[in-house]
Amino acid sequence: MEENIEIETKKVLIVDDEQAIIDVLVYNLKKEGYETIEATDGISAVNIALEEKPDLMLLDIMLPKLDGLSVCKRVKNQLNIPILMLTAKDAEIDKIVGLELGADDYITKPFSVRELMARVKANLRKNEMASVRKDDTSFAENTQVKEENVIKVNDLELDLDRFEVKIKGKIMDLTLREFEVLKFLASQPRSSSYKRSFTRESLGL
Fold it and tell me: Is the previous residue joined to 82 through a cis bond, with omega within 30 degrees of 0?
């Protein structure tokens, strides 16, 4: 007897005032099995987010009626969902402010669709793992993690499966981009005589 297993479809809210970008994102997200909803201005984005409660938001910064940074702040005050900011390549201050307001990640325009899909999946997974830890406080104690998926450097411990960082046993709250940078640095060869310079490009910033 076959058992039908219902898999929850993740809902992604796309917020951009350029219909061509929305169309590309909708096509690729649906191809990956996601449900999509759309907004073309900041006010509509906030209203739709609070009504539909998506699992993730792709949010452009330059929006009519209400800018993306303000949208991010309002939505984060009400919903605990990952928000990926879509920024111009030279909008450094927007990236910084966006992360400070609660954005979980950002990607610069023009972006690679393949990279964007990977970031959507990673942020959804990170948020799911955070929800599991919140619902079950004994999760970390009762679950054994494969040693090869954990990086340890002195008091620092990175769990690559759970996107979790601990310092002296205390879980740190980091964005996905911060986790990626820390993982990159922790994976580098180390010695007392070894020195290396890192560019912003090599760190993905």
Answer: no
